[in-house]
């Protein structure tokens, strides 16, 4: 039996070893593929720079995530509660998703400027749809027996939504938030690529132009760490919010 | 063996375990009609629920028993010219408690909060008196001390006991039960029938069931619904007071009669 942490370490060590060996044997130049050691060196040298730009991106991601989840949640509740909202807004919502959000990035930068606002808006746009559809689907798939029971108890539609349908939709909602946490960094970085003066996306473009590929790799690594940490945080929150939900994953999977 | 004895031993007559603040209600469904995809399932059907008695409705699947119950529960729209009348002339809406085959417990609420669900849904504050009444009902169905547990920690029989407590908590003049015990194993079912019969004494109850023995144990008036279009047969009234003993010879004789009517 190997501890989960040990397995992660072994996997990482093998991958890094393979990468280092590839660089050694092929002799690829540093500006095409830096070795892991060179990336580690860059991370150490440029730590203050990475920290400063990382902070910008992390702020954008978190604010985007909060805004997107709040907006998506509200939209789903409105759609579930009001028939008129479903009939008028649902088609708009679906069609709006046919437009690639990335195509809007230049427009957002034009409207909201080079600062954080346009990146947060970008992240919100990316997150909004998965959260809305996840929660709305959850709200629509309430166990019919519960709804029957609520009707015989004289519940108003609003009370049924609040007491039964919303709690019952929590698992679906949290799957949506998990997806949101995974795509939020994409929104922020795309926004930074289109036009910014700060953030990891900006740092990547900057380093790329100057052939500092080791710094580019270091920025990607920091972004990856953010994504993993964010996912873990959301997962922990979801477990706390749903203590009643049984984990149906086979037990031998988690060992 | 002790368990079997407990099940078989008829309990002495009890006054209502749960005091009845509302007078029992007599209900009559008449001229009932139901069509499904052009097929007439029943028409001009009559069913009378006597006040304070338990009426059991038996019949094969697909005969329309559950739809009849759902019409009374306000969950299905009655087809014209179906009429539902009460002996006090007031509409039935808001005066029924419903118990289904599934326990319908909300997994995120504690056992106690599940019993109090009706008040939550009607946006009424849960008073300490109400909470105490819910706890007393849980005690009555044999679940004292489990108030704070989540439904997932209970067995199927215990969950259905909570559903029974929730139904009694509603305290309505008419109790509608749709095969409430059919998902339980035989022994658990017998015990729950006992608890149900004891706690529902004095209320008007309509129970839809597939199980002739169940109907004979806890029903006061048994109707068999058969045929297409279906009709409701005359009431069969088993002697004695519910819950009746499973090994009562009179019951076994009546079971044969019921099975004959079901087959016919």
From TrEMBL, chain A:
Gene Ontology cellular component terms for the protein in this record: plasma membrane
TM helices/strands, residue ranges: 7-27, 61-80, 92-114, 120-139, 172-194, 215-234
Primary subcellular site in the record, as a coarse category: membrane
Gene3D superfamilies in UniProt: MetI-like
Any one Pfam family match given in the protein's UniProt record, by short name: BPD_transp_1
Domain of life: Bacteria
Stretches assigned to the ABC transmembrane type-1 domain: 54-234
CDD domains reported for this sequence: TM_PBP2 (cd06261)
Single GO biological process annotation from the record: transmembrane transport
Name this polypeptide is given: ABC transporter permease
Keywords assigned by UniProt, alphabetized: Cell membrane, Membrane, Transmembrane, Transmembrane helix, Transport
Membrane topology, as annotated: Multi-pass membrane protein
Sequence similarity: Belongs to the binding-protein-dependent transport system permease family.
Family matches, as InterPro entries: MetI-like (IPR000515), MetI-like_sf (IPR035906)
Record's subcellular location: Cell membrane
UniProtKB/TrEMBL annotation, chain B:
One Gene Ontology MF term: ATP binding
Keywords, comma-separated and alphabetical: ATP-binding, Nucleotide-binding, Transport
InterPro entries on file: AAA+_ATPase, ABC_transporter-like_ATP-bd, ABC_transporter-like_CS, ABC_transporter_ATP-bind, P-loop_NTPase
Gene3D superfamilies the UniProt entry points to: P-loop containing nucleotide triphosphate hydrolases
SUPFAM superfamilies per the UniProt record, alphabetical: P-loop containing nucleoside triphosphate hydrolases
Protein name: ABC transporter ATP-binding protein
Family: Belongs to the ABC transporter superfamily.
Name of a matching Pfam family: ABC_tran
Keyword Nucleotide-binding among UniProt keywords: yes
Domain named ABC transporter: residues: 27-254
Top-level taxon in the UniProt lineage: Bacteria
Record PROSITE patterns: ABC_TRANSPORTER_1 (PS00211), ABC_TRANSPORTER_2 (PS50893)
């Amino acid at each position: 039996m190997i501890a989960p942490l040990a397995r992660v370490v072994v996997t990482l060590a093998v991958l890094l070893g393979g990468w280092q060996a590839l660089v050694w044997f092929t002799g690829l130049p540093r500006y095409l593929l830096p070795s892991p050691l060179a990336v580690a060196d860059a991370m150490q040298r440029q730590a203050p720079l990475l920290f400063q730009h990382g902070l910008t991106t992390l702020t954008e991601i978190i604010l985007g995530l909060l805004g997107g989840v709040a907006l998506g949640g509200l939209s789903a509740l409105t759609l579930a509660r009001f028939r008129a909202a479903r009939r008028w807004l649902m088609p708009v919502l679906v069609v709006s998703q046919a437009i690639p959000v990335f195509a809007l990035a230049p427009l957002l930068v034009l409207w909201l400027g080079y600062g954080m606002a346009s990146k947060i808006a970008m992240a919100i746009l990316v997150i909004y749809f998965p959260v809305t559809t996840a929660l709305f689907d959850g709200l629509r798939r309430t166990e019919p027996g519960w709804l029957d029971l609520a009707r015989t108890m004289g519940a108003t539609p609003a009370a049924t939504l609040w007491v039964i349908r919303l709690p019952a939709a929590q698992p679906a909602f949290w799957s949506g938030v998990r997806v949101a946490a995974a795509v939020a960094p994409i929104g922020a970085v795309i926004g930074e690529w289109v036009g910014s003066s700060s953030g990891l996306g900006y740092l990547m473009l900057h380093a790329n132009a100057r052939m500092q590929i080791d710094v580019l790799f270091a920025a990607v690594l920091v972004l990856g760490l953010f994504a993993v940490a964010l996912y873990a945080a959301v997962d922990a929150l979801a477990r706390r919010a749903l203590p009643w939900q049984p984990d149906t994953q086979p037990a031998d999977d988690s060992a | 063996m002790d368990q079997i004895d407990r099940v078989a031993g008829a309990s002495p007559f009890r006054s209502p375990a749960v005091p009845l603040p509302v007078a029992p209600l007599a209900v009559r469904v008449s001229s009932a009609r139901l069509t499904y995809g052009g097929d007439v399932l029943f028409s001009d059907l009559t069913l009378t629920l006597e006040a304070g008695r338990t009426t059991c409705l038996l019949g094969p699947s697909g005969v329309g028993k559950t739809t009849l119950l759902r019409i009374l529960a306000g969950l299905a729209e009655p087809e014209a010219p179906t009429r539902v009348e009460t002996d006090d002339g007031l509409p039935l809406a808001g005066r029924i408690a419903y118990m289904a085959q599934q326990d319908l417990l909300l997994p995120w609420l504690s056992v106690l909060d599940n019993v109090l669900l009706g008040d939550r849904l009607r946006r009424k504050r849960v008073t300490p008196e109400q909470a105490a009444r819910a706890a007393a009902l849980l005690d009555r169905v044999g679940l004292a001390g489990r108030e704070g547990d989540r439904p997932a920690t209970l067995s199927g029989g215990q969950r259905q006991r909570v559903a029974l407590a929730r139904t009694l908590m509603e305290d309505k003049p008419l109790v509608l039960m749709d095969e409430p015990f059919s998902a339980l194993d035989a022994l658990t079912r017998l015990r729950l029938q006992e608890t149900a019969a004891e706690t529902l004494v004095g209320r008007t109850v309509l129970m839809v069931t597939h199980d002739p023995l169940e109907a004979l144990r806890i029903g006061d008036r048994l109707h068999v619904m058969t045929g297409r279009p279906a009709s409701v047969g005359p009431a069969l009234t088993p002697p004695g007071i519910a819950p009746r003993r499973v090994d009562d010879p009179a019951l076994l004789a009546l079971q044969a009669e019921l099975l004959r009517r079901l087959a016919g």
